[in-house]
Amino acid sequence: MSKPSDGEQTAATPEELREQVEQTRAELGDTVQALADKADVKARAKEKGAQAKEKGAEVAEQAAAKAAELKGKAVLAAHSVQGKVQDKVPDPVKDKAAQAAVQVREGAAKAGRVWDEKAPEPVRHQAAEGARVARDNRTLLLSVAGAATLVWLIVRRKKA
Fold this sequence. Notes:
- This protein is an all-alpha fold.
- The protein is built from five helices and no strands.
- The chain has helices spanning about 15-40, 40-90, 90-120, 120-135, 140-160.
């Protein structure tokens, strides 16, 4: 057997020696387990992947919360601007706009009735399908219409 080094204590009894041996075995077992865990690349990769997935979900939740917050702010800003614009529009203009809106609704209803009476069934079916697609893609259509309006305004301003 080897001699104990200066810092180590020797066991006085066989029972103390057994306890030291058990303690050394436990420490050695922990060390071996730690080394095995470090050597298990697949498990470490899975763990890192799970951590990344958790972090990604957390970031997605934060992004969704921020988007909802910004949407709320945009709605408030739109209402604020709309209120300010309506306050500046004279009452006679508002009345004319309301009358025009009523006339447009009545005209649209009349056109719809004429369409139902005179349009052939295949044409009505195609139109209904087109309207459904437009409703399903409303956001895209509004974005395109807004962009087209913006381009038209820019071109018009440059010509003026």
